[in-house]
């Protein structure tokens, strides 16, 4: 090996678009009231945790996981009431599934299209994989700009379209009719990302059989299993068969498989928690809308988007008072002075409101 420095090797060898990226920043949250990452604030009841502990104690962690956990997939299909002929593919979180989809369609020159502002991983993963990315701006009220989106689809002929339903970070649910028109007009695959399905009142799962180019992606992260990393794609076996070829054989570990299966047996407990979060979302929305200088946006997710003057200073004020939320200011022109807060427990929400009032001054 010639005497060259690691940094000059890195500059030579790493793709320029990767060199230009900054890593996805996850702030240190220790000691804070953590309302930044759309997690469910509740643990499951102690008796259920003890059952999980016993399962974990007996788990064969010396063995590789089941590469294709049929029973767990079956359990998910039954919970979803999937239409005939549809199946699921499991991912290590849905982030992994976005990557897998992009890898599958990234022929030279292929385009990934989404709307903006939306989940930043769509753009980031397109860059990782070397796909072209097109982001169509939402309307000023964060609804879909249908005419602009349809025009972009005609112009760009994207191989892959992602629509987050409800959308992150704006929290709203797009018009189902507009989404249907986008799916119908798309020459490529459309993935409706239902990460926040547990807090919303609509889903495209019942419509899977109507569109040959539709897949629905979900995650259990927001339903109390963020630490397990489990997401899935639901759709026609014809698509999933191809995507399975790209899935790394042991992408879902022994413990996530075991614990998820146990938790999904008690799906009722998780849905009850989601129901509580929806009630608390309504209360938090009401409280925020009464604070002078705060604009809060309607949400069908487990978080709220708000706009406030000098958002970065307010974000820092909240941090100084022990509350961590997400500062979106500067991330996208349509998110100037925007903050995003995850709905926590009622006590956490109270602490957030008090800290917000003090930070606004
Ligand atoms: N899709 C959307 C819209 C999200 O907001 C998130 C998480 N922030 C994800 C997918 C990824 O979730 P996970 O990887 O935890 O399954």
Task: Give an overview of the whole structure.
- By secondary structure, the chain is of the alpha/beta class.
- It folds into 2 domains: 8-45 and 269-360, Aspartate Aminotransferase, domain 1; 62-265, Aspartate Aminotransferase, domain 2.
- It has 13 helices and 13 strands.
- It has helices at residues 6-13, 16-19, 46-57, 70-80, 93-105, 120-129, 146-156, 176-185, 237-244, 254-265, 267-289, 311-320, 346-360; strands at 33-34, 86-91, 111-116, 132-137, 160-164, 189-193, 214-219, 231-236, 294-296, 303-308, 323-324, 326-327, 338-342.
- The strands form 3 sheets. A 7-stranded mixed sheet has the order 2-8-7-6-5-3-4, sandwiched between helices. Strands 9-10-13-12 form a 4-stranded antiparallel sheet, with helices on one face. It has a two-stranded parallel ribbon with strand order 1-11.
- β3 (111-116), α6 (120-129) and β4 form a beta-alpha-beta unit.
- α3 runs antiparallel to α10 (254-265), α4 packs parallel to α10 and α12 (311-320) packs across α13.
- It is globular, with a radius of gyration of 21 Å.
- The termini are far apart.
- The mean pLDDT is 96.
- 4'-deoxy-4'-aminopyridoxal-5'-phosphate binds next to α5.
Strand order across the largest sheet: 2-8-7-6-5-3-4
Helix-strand pattern: HHEHHEHEHEHEHEEEHHHEEHEEEH
Shape, per Cα inertia axes: globular
Largest beta-sheet characterization: 7 strands, mixed
- Give the CATH architecture of the largest domain: 3-Layer(aba) Sandwich
Kindly state the number of beta strands. Answer: 13
The portion of residues forming beta strands comes to: 15-25%
Q: What ligands does this structure carry?
A: 4'-deoxy-4'-aminopyridoxal-5'-phosphate
Oligomer: single chain
Helical run tally: 13
**Estimated structural class:** alpha/beta
């Amino acid at each position: 090996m010639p005497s060259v420095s690691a940094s000059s090797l890195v500059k030579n060898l790493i793709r320029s678009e990767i060199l230009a990226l900054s890593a996805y920043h996850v702030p240190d949250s220790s000691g804070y009231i953590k309302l930044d990452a759309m997690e469910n604030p509740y643990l499951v009841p102690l008796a259920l945790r003890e059952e999980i502990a016993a399962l974990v104690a007996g788990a064969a962690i010396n063995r590789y996981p089941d590469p294709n956990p049929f029973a767990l997939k079956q359990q998910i299909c039954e919970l979803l009431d999937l239409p005939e002929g549809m199946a699921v593919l499991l991912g290590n979180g849905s982030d992994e599934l976005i990557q897998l989809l992009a890898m599958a369609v990234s022929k030279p020159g292929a385009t990934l299209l989404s709307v903006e502002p939306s989940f930043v991983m769509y753009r980031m993963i397109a860059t990782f994989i070397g796909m072209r990315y097109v982001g169509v701006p939402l309307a000023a009220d964060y609804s879909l700009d249908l005419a602009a989106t349809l025009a972009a689809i005609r112009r760009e002929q994207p191989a892959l379209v992602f629509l987050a339903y409800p959308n992150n970070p704006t929290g709203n649910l797009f018009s189902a009719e507009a989404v249907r028109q986008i799916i119908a007009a798309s020459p490529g695959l459309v993935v409706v990302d239902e990460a926040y399905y547990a807090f919303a009142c609509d889903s495209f799962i019942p419509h899977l059989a109507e569109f040959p180019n539709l897949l629905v992606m979900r995650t259990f992260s927001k339903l109390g299993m963020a630490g397990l990393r489990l997401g899935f794609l639901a759709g026609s076996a014809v698509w999933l068969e191809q995507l399975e070829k790209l899935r790394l054989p042991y992408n879902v570990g022994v413990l996530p498989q075991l614990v998820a299966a146990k938790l999904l047996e008690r799906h009722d407990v998780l849905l009850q928690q989601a129901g509580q979060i929806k009630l608390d979302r309504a209360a938090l929305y009401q409280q925020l809308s009464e604070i002078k200088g705060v604009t809060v946006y309607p949400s069908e997710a487990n978080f709220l988007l708000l706009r406030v003057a000098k958002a970065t200073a307010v974000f820092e004020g909240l941090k100084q008072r022990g509350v961590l939320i997400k500062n979106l200011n500067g991330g996208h022109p349509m998110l100037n002075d925007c903050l995003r807060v995850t709905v926590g427990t009622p006590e956490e929400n109270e602490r957030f409101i008090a800290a917000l009032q003090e930070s606004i001054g």
